[in-house]
Amino acid sequence: MTRPTPETLAHRASPATVAAAAGQTQAVASPVQTSGAGALVRSLEALGVEVAFGIPGGAILPAYDPLYDSKVRHILVRHEQGAGHAATGYAQATGKVGVCIATSGPGATNLVTPIADAYMDSVPIVAITGQVARPSIGTDAFQEADIQGITLPITKHNFLVQSAEEVPRILAEAFHLAATGRPGPVLVDIPKDVLQAQTTFTWPPALDLPGYRPTLHPHGKQIREAARLIAASRRPVLYVGGGVLKAGATDGLRRLAELTGIPVVTTLMALGAFPDSHPQHLGMPGMHGTVPAVYALQKADLLVTLGARFDDRVTGQLNSFAPDAKIVHADIDPAEIGKNRHADVPIVGDARHVIDELIAAVSAAAEGAGQYEPWWATLNDLRERYPLGYDEPTDGSLAPQYVIERIGELVGPDAIYVAGVGQHQMWASQFIKYEKPGTWLNSGGAGTMGYAVPAAMGAKVGKPDTAVWAIDGDGCFQMTNQELATCALEGIPVKIAVINNGNLGMVRQWQTLFYEGRYSNTELGTHKHRIPDFVKLAEALGCVGLRCESKDDVDKIIQQAMEINDAPVVIDFTVGKDAMVWPMVAAGTSNDEIMFARDVRPAFEEDDL
């Protein structure tokens, strides 16, 4: 299937283009008499939807009758939040639009967290919610909530459907909006009487989205100016964000990096966009980034920023970030450019096109790595002096970093790794090596605890032949582990590695460092009382439960889990509670104050460049 052109992605795009942009196929239906609910399901089929995650309820129930006979696979989740995160995981793993369904009121409001999560991380999902009948809207009817108003700040767009005739057009527009430009979540709220009303279904509908024209190709003048700055720089950095992955621009990124010899840093959302093993890769920047990556950004004279948004987790104290650097900022969303940091060269465009045109512009003038030899000498020295590592616990407990490192080495770079949020997320970003795009899924912008299990479920549904491992914490795991029952019943054999330190680990780390060790409400009881017992819980949910408490058993337990492919597997890795994530830039401080370990700070002021 060919990639959509800028012209076909503009105003009044065809539904065939919508399906293509979402990575899906299109079915063509003849005109037929049906209900609004029937039109909804037929539209999903025509848009090439393979799977939807959801839970029925009163207002959305009319849609579940035609869904019973549909080729669209519906996965009955145990909580609507699980449906939303599963749709996100599916979308992140496949590049297609994820779909979740919920009823009105609390069903719809339970989708708010995953919708916000998808919005922050630019993930294309369409959330379909039932609504009370039109005459009841605004009367505080049973299970009524203004989900359109509630989600207005956290959706790319949302719709309240007013008639059955509108259903095909609005569904097609929703998928088009979710998949094109800067991807994001779109909500479609459908009143119950609209679902029940009779209509004539025809496909394809005519889309009408005046004013929606994503800019894909950058302006040539800006590209030439960026190339001029690259040629003049002596301490440049390619600062790469998740937009490079979403644009499918990873091959071009590698060509650009190797052509110019410029160091590369990849944000948390961009891991896998550039191989960890590549000699030009300095690692992840930011709060828990590598020392060379943080230093490179701070001391750069030019940042070529591609699909990144100068997030506070990367910049630290904004007014001290990269003080001597000129900024080339390329993003498909013009609202991001200049939002946090002034751009000397603003470039609006799709990262794939931006990178391809930069390659052409710098090819003639590129000198390769030679002009950056002093810069590389400094960065390589930092790599040698401050490698990522960890200390073995002195109390004989199992080091969580070792567990995660061994999972990465034994499972390999072709698997998909899904992380929750907290210490385990940072260790998974540091100690698993990501060599390929699409192998690292996590909640970056929103930082949503409970993301991992349902997102892993969605990823495995989308990529059934790929091993999917969730690296979760004992706190995160307890928020959404009920979806393991869904996995067991639906035949979705995910692997869940619970890094069980008995605490809310990242909060405990902050209490150790900044609150004099006053551990207020961070102990979870999963160590002291073994409540819950994760092995028994896994078995109760229809999964295989394993436990590992010693370093000697780590490889054996991981391999045992790898051999089980007919059921979900949960491994309770019981680890020490005092491990910390290093390096660290404390919130609100300058990146210059990065700590490599407690009371160990690299001397960035000794810059001899």
Brief summary:
The chain has 609 residues and is of the alpha/beta class. Helices cover 35% and strands 15% of the residues.
Fold and architecture overview:
56% of the residues are buried. The protein starts with 14 loop residues before the first helix and ends in a 35-residue tail after the last strand. A six-stranded parallel beta sheet has the order 3-2-4-5-7-6, sandwiched between helices. It is built from 24 helices and 20 strands. β15, α18 (423-431) and β16 (440-441) form a beta-alpha-beta unit. The longest helix is centred in the N-terminal third of the chain and has 15 residues, at 80-94. It has three domains: 15-201, Rossmann fold (3-Layer(aba) Sandwich); 220-385, TPP-binding domain (Rossmann fold, 3-Layer(aba) Sandwich); 400-574, Thiamin diphosphate (ThDP)-binding fold, Pyr/PP domains (Rossmann fold, 3-Layer(aba) Sandwich). The chain is 35% helix and 15% strand. It is α/β, with parallel strands linked by helices and 609 residues long.
Task: Give the secondary structure arrangement, pairings included.
Layout: H1 15-21, E1 32-35, H2 36-46, E2 51-54, H3 61-67, E3 73-76, H4 80-94, E4 98-102, H5 106-109, H6 112-120, E5 125-131, H7 147-150, E6 157-160, H8 167-179, E7 186-191, H9 192-196, E8 198-201, H10 220-232, E9 236-240, H11 243-246, H12 250-260, E10 264-266, E11 281-283, H13 291-299, E12 302-306, H14 312-315, E13 326-331, E14 345-348, H15 351-363, H16 373-385, H17 400-411, E15 416-419, H18 423-431, E16 440-441, H19 452-462, E17 468-473, H20 474-480, H21 483-490, E18 495-500, H22 505-514, H23 534-540, E19 544-548, H24 554-562, E20 569-574
Parallel strand pairs: 2-3, 2-4, 4-5, 5-7, 6-7, 9-10, 9-12, 10-11, 12-13, 13-14, 15-16, 15-17, 17-18, 18-20, 19-20
Antiparallel strand pairs: 1-8
Helix pairs in contact: 1-8, 2-3, 2-8, 4-6, 4-19, 10-15, 12-15, 13-16, 17-18, 17-24
